[in-house]
Write a structure and sequence with these properties.
Blueprint lengths: L4 E4 L3 E7 L4 H4 L16 E7 L1 H11 L5 E7 L4 H9 L3 E8 L5 E7 L5 E6 L18 E4 L4 H13 L3 E4 L10 H8 L4 E5 H11 L3 H7 L2 E5 L5 E4 L4 E4 L13 H14 L4 H16 L11 H12 L4
Parallel strand pairs: 1-4, 1-8, 2-6, 4-5, 8-9, 9-10, 10-11
Antiparallel strand pairs: 2-3, 6-7, 11-12, 12-13
Helix pairs in contact: 2-8, 4-5, 5-6, 8-9, 9-10
Length: 312
């Protein structure tokens, strides 16, 4: 029987824009209290995105069939719905609200790959109705979404004894120290970039050892510097993966999470799981947008072998 992967998070339309300069050259540090800037953009594309959509899309390319638990707006979700169904993603737990829009993300990237983003939640204003969640799953991920869901879902997964990954991401700023502690405690994995994990530590007052007592695995992504995976007995450093080109970093983190899930459910050890996640993330970087890249699992295995002189 295929493993059941439950992905909770956002489904959104991404408006991705390129700024052909550097943000720091346009912002005066001593004038931040009266910040008023405008960026003349070079390129803009609209695409399918959102944390749940991006993770699920990459899982589908890794030959899995994830189930998404999220809210959308019925008036504009049609094309996205067709796209996900074509890629074998289960949408039976997605609720379509008749008077709401699907969430939208507005992302500006500069020449140094720094990003400024705005997010309109639309149907995500409504917390997901946990009454719709019937049954079980082998693994779940709580990725950035309505903060109320990010505190409620971990409690449900713990009651149902479902292993889950807690990924506070951009919502780390919206969650209190007490909420973070409660959601992290009992997680199989806590994941975030180095800034997010530092913020988690500041808000909770916890050290790395405290985080590892609350969750089994801590994953810290470091952008172009790779990533670090830690457990109570092991620290694994994953190097930067060779790229054909660097086009757009948007969505790389979600691709990494899909690879991480694939490694965990495949029974790989910590190092192999981190390496797989890193390889999958590179495909997203090499294409503009978050769901425009394509690969087969065979191609991932080949690229893994090229980078690590080892096989999956």
């Amino acid at each position: 029987m295929p493993l059941k992967i439950l992905v909770t998070g956002s489904l959104a339309y991404d408006r991705i824009m390129d700024f052909p300069g550097r943000f720091k050259d346009q912002i005066l540090p001593d004038k931040l209290h009266i910040l008023n800037v405008s960026f003349f953009l070079e390129k803009m594309e609209e695409g399918f995105g959102g944390t749940a959509g991006n993770i699920s899309y990459n899982l589908s390319l890794l030959e899995e069939k994830p189930k998404i638990f999220a809210n959308v707006g019925i008036k504009d979700f049609g094309n996205y719905k067709k796209h996900l169904l074509r890629h074998n993603v289960d949408l039976s737990l997605v609720k379509e609200y008749p008077d709401q829009q699907t969430a939208s993300a507005y992302i500006i990237t500069d020449l140094r790959r720094n990003q400024i983003a705005g997010f309109f939640p639309g149907a995500m204003f409504h917390p997901v109705s946990t009454r719709r969640f019937i049954g079980s799953a082998d693994i779940a991920i709580v990725s950035p979404q309505n903060p109320a869901d990010m505190t409620q879902l971990p409690e449900i997964f713990k009651k149902k004894k479902i292993s889950y990954i807690f990924d506070p991401g951009q919502q780390t700023t919206s969650l209190s120290g007490a909420q973070l502690k409660k959601s992290i405690t009992g997680a199989k994995v806590l994941i975030g970039n180095d800034y997010e994990i530092s913020l988690v530590k500041k808000k909770t007052g916890w050290t790395t050892n405290d985080l590892l007592k609350a969750s089994k695995i801590l994953v810290i992504t470091l952008g172009e510097k790779g990533s670090v995976l830690k457990s109570a007995s092991q620290i694994v450093k994953i190097p930067k993966i060779k790229r054909e080109k660097t086009v757009d970093p948007t969505g790389a983190g979600d691709a990494y999470r899909a690879g991480l899930i694939k490694g965990l459910i495949s029974g790989y050890d910590l190092e192999k799981t981190g390496r797989l996640a890193a390889v999958v993330s590179v495909y997203a970087v090499e294409k503009y947008g978050t769901q425009n890249h394509k690969f087969t699992f065979s191609q991932v295995k080949s690229r893994y072998r090229q980078n690590f002189k080892d096989s999956l």
